[in-house]
Amino acid sequence: MAKSLRLIATDRQRTNILREWEQKTIAYLVQKVPAWISSDGLTAIGFFGNLMVASSFVLGAYLSRYWLLMSLPGFIINWIGDSLDGRLAYYRNKPRKWYGFSLDVTVDWIGTILIGLGFTIYAPGIWKYAGFMFVVLYGWEMITAQLRYKIGGQYSIDSGIFGPTEVRLLLGTIITLEVIVPGSIQYLATAACIFLLISNLVESRRLLFMADVQDKAARLLKETEREALHKENA
Length: 234
Description:
The protein has a single domain, classed as Up-down Bundle (Four Helix Bundle (Hemerythrin (Met), subunit A)), CATH 1.20.120.1760. About 75% of the residues lie in helices and about 0% in strands. The protein has helices at about 1-5, 20-30, 40-60, 70-90, 95-120, 130-150, 165-180, 185-234. The longest helix has about 50 residues, at about 185-234.
């Protein structure tokens, strides 16, 4: 297990609550992936999970709210594909860092949009905007992660103690409660958006602080080089 953890380790920093359990589970599962399944295949599997979640909202709107429960295996399938695709490449010593990074971000964004659209189909009246806001706020979180990677050189998919896995669990809980208590998703989804907004504001503040520190360090380095050059010419 320890060897597997080292093999799948990259420059990705995890801060989420479930990180220890999640990394151990990934290290175990990555050894069980059949040889005929590639990293891109796992990405496709993860995307299919998102399609299941989006479809559950549409079916819940037009057939029965019990179809919402289809989102639960959808989240599990998405977690498997999304968590193992890049780790599998490193485990098999076939990493494609920038290709995998670009593909992962693109597919995740498309999947998020589809889930948001599914929610707007399910939700009545003005509550549809909660789905739109979730897509916007999640997109903001993704942009912050990319900027943090660019500025600090450390890629993190988490916002503090919350990561994609915790978000999946939260959404799964909200959807399950909607099946039990019809109409509750409207208020819980709104509350989730407010929480995501606060989290984004906090992470953006940290990002700006990091950027300011980097600017000051670059300015100091430039001044030091200028002084050294001036002494050489004196």
